[in-house]
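Quick one, probably user error.
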């Protein structure tokens, strides 16, 4: 995701991580407890764009509304429709209607499978969009779905808002030939599918296309989803958007090829922290097993996502750890550890911003601190503040108070100013919203 523009110490409103998107109506976090940061990658896209399609497109006979939830209608082909009560993609049972709830008190799942399938099956051209500065779940899910739709004979284009660059750690993903620059997406998409975006603003420059699309399908797993889209496949209980995409692909009757499985596995592994976060259920491992059986090599994916970095990154990491400060009395006496990484420091080492994600994973290991924080200065000079909790402190609430958002144990916000002043504001917000 791109980072918000903030003046002075005023909270921004656009997010660098869809895991850390603002929650308009905060509720108990049902999604995965941890998340990686997703920053603006300065690297160039290495794939060739899909040639521009003709301006004149075939469209559905009647425009579809963009905002609001539409009840499921239409019929899923019998051969593809699972029996009511059959095991669902997240465990439990599949809903007999268009919606299901993740549990008492939490955000409800909205699974309009019939509606989504009907829109896809009648479309000739489908545009896919994920959130800006995509992470493994966003890009992996989008490219996997794009390949599946292409296999059905659909004209398919995929994109994300500027900066239109694929992070270096994700350049191994198959299907990037489907990517086109945002400006080359149709002005009025026939059917548009958004992936891993909690709100339309998360689409950046493609938000306008979503607003005028004749039909808009939303596939997402964030509890902070704002409720946009004509057909919604939104489940806060899903460990990753890839879980929902895999189910959609299955319902479309598309075989699980090795390339499709690669993207889905990248999404699943990313959002479960390589299967170590609390959202890693038996059903998650079942899905991972099916993806491995389709040909995914987990060691290759893990190496690309987590186990490689230039030497300059090690120097930046060493400096960040050397500057780290432990405040034992902060966060309600549970402890806070934090550090900062300025733009000048990473520039001097030739380290792009998108390679700083792993710093907080080292900092959060501190035994004496419940909360870990890394302030990372972006190319525009603002500070992206990534927070992690081990579960006893709700960092999501604190980040919401500062104009950000996310999950209970993984959230972020962006501010201008000095890191020490920003940490002062965060410290106060953590104490105010201290979990009982």
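Nope, works fine. Designed sequence:
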């Amino acid at each position: 995701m791109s980072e918000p523009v903030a003046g002075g110490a005023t909270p921004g409103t656009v997010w660098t991580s869809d895991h850390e998107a603002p929650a308009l109506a905060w509720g108990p976090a049902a999604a995965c407890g941890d998340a990686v940061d997703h920053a603006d990658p300065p690297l160039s896209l290495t794939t060739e764009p899909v040639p521009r399609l003709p301006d004149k497109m075939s469209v559905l006979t009647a425009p579809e509304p963009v905002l609001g939830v539409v009840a499921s209608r239409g019929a899923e082909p019998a051969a593809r429709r699972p029996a009511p009560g059959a095991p669902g993609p997240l465990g439990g049972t599949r809903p007999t209607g268009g919606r299901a709830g993740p549990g008492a008190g939490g955000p409800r799942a909205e699974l309009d499978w019939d509606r989504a399938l009907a829109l896809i099956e009648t479309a000739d051209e489908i545009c896919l969009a994920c959130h800006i500065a995509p992470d493994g779940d966003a890009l992996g899910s989008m490219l996997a779905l794009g390949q599946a739709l292409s296999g059905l004979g659909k004209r398919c284009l995929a994109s994300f808002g500027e900066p239109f660059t694929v992070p270096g750690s994700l350049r191994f993903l198959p299907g990037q030939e489907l990517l086109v620059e945002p400006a080359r997406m149709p002005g009025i998409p026939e059917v548009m599918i958004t992936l891993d975006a909690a709100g339309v603003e998360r689409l950046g420059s493609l938000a306008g296309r979503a607003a005028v699309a004749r039909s808009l399908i939303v596939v997402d797993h964030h509890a902070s989803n704002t409720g946009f889209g004509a057909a919604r496949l939104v489940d806060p209980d899903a460990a990753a958007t890839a879980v929902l995409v895999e189910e959609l692909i299955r319902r479309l009757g598309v075989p699980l090829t090795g390339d499709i499985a690669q993207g889905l596995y990248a999404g699943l592994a990313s959002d479960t922290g390589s299967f170590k976060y609390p959202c890693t259920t038996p059903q998650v491992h079942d899905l991972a097993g099916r993806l491995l059986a389709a040909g995914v090599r987990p060691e290759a994916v893990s190496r690309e996502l987590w186990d490689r970095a230039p030497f300059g990154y090690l120097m930046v990491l060493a400096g960040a750890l050397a500057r780290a400060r432990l405040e034992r009395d902060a966060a309600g006496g549970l402890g806070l550890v934090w550090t900062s990484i300025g733009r000048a420091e990473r520039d001097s080492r030739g380290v792009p911003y998108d390679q700083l994600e792993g710093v907080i994973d080292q900092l959060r290991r501190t035994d004496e601190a419940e909360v870990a924080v890394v302030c990372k200065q972006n190319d525009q000079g603002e500070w992206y503040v990534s927070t992690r909790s081990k579960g006893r402190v709700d960092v999501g609430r604190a980040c919401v108070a500062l104009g950000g958002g996310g999950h209970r144990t993984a959230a972020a916000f962006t501010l201008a100013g000095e890191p020490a002043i920003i940490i002062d504001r965060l410290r106060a917000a953590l104490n105010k919203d201290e979990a009982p």
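DSSP finds 13 helices and 13 strands in the chain.
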